[in-house]
Amino acid sequence: MSDIASQLRTARTDAGIDIATAEYATKIRSKYLRALESGDWAALPEETSAKSFLRTYGDYLGLDGRALVEVFKAGQVSVGDPSSYAPRAPYGSETRRRGWRTWLVVALVVILIVGLFLIGTNSDAAPPQALIHGAALGLLP
Length: 141
Description:
By secondary structure, this protein is mainly alpha-helical. 70% of the residues lie in helices and 0% in strands. It folds into two domains: 2-83, Orthogonal Bundle (434 Repressor (Amino-terminal Domain)); 93-139.
C-alpha cells in the first residue's frame, strides 16, 4: 500500500505541482492529499471517500486512477476511525418527518393563494373613496 503513496508523491513532485495547486484542481482538502501521499489511510474519512479521492488524485496526476483504486481495494486497509461514525437513522424516518412539513407549507401556500384570489375578486366593487363620496352626497339636502 505504501507503493500507492510513493507513486502519488513521485508523480506530483515530478510534475512540479505543490499540494495547494493539487487541492485547488481536485477539490480535495490538502490534509487528505497528504494522507494519500503518506499512506496514512486512517486519516481519510471513510472507504468510499478514500477510493474517490484516490481515483481523482491519480487521474489528476496522470496516473491510472482506477488501477490505483483496485490496488487499494486488494490491500484491504482500514480507513478512518469507525468508532467516530454516528449511526444513521433508518431510511424513511427522516422522510416521514419531512413529509408533514411539506404538506404544511403546501397548505399555507394554498390558503395564501385562495385569500389573494378572494381579495382580488372583491376589489371589483366600488373603491372606498366612491362609497364615501356617495354617502356624503346622500347626506346633503
